[in-house]
Specification:
The protein is mostly helical and about 290 residues long. The protein has 18 helices and two strands. It has two domains: about 80 residues, no CATH class; about 180 residues, Orthogonal Bundle (Hypothetical protein af1432). The protein is globular and about 50 Å long. Bound molecules: fe (ii) ion (2 copies).
Amino acid sequence: MSSHLAALPEVSQRLCKLPAFWPVAARIWEGLDARAGRPEITPLISLDAAITAEILVAANSPVYGFSSSIYNVHEALTILEWDHVKRLLHAAVGGRLETDVRTEPLIQASWTHSLATAFFASELAPFFGIPEDRAYMLGLMHDIGRLGMLATYPGPYLDVAARTYRTSLECLGSEECVLGMSHCKAGLWLARVWGLPAEFSESAAAHHAMVIDSHWPAATLAGMACRLAHAGGFVFEHCKPVSTEEAISIAPPELLRRLRPRLGEIEARGRSRLLKSMNGFCPLDPLLSRN
Ligand SMILES: [Fe+2]
Ligand SMILES: [Fe+2]
């Protein structure tokens, strides 16, 4: 297939319409129906990258004068009118309650992986000097490009996801071969088009980079959290399993020295918060029996 990057304007609407994980969308829909308020709805939005994206895009719009400076759902909901938020949510979740049986398992795998990455990123945040809530969002949104590609090219992406790879980088290569772009490039494009803060495009674009760049802490944080999610078994692509030690091994020596003694705690706390948040949205038994 020829490069789709050149054709992005034609497919951009579908690429921008990220698929939400339907149990979360359904819970928000029920909440709106029951006239639930911000305190009940906010934590639900923050569980799903697709629904979070709708809110962050609106809040970072130049219309509100906070262009490219709103990093999380809580901040967004303090500047957006609640009626506007409800309209956005109705539009965002209403069209996503119908599931596609072909892609639903991948959307669930992506949801689990992104949520795991969010919690591990928030646990790693102090080591990078990044606020925990911001780190959570960078982790949650790091694979938005994959969701966009899944919505835009479901058939070819199913083929890509069905293969087994030695590493995530091999999977990126397969995306490039089959679709003409990787999910990192798609994520970079989305974050820029949406006017999100630069850290979102940075982490979406470079979270699979194997070289730590001190100028890109957001990408390093998201990348390390993504690898910890893989190590914990919260995977999207089928790759050779990695240990938590391998997951952090790309960190520079000084960071490794500080991280190693806390690694068990980071892994346990991130996993515990993840399972608590997933409870009620999907079966936990396979995850609980893994460790
Ligand atoms: Fe990724
Ligand atoms: Fe990832």
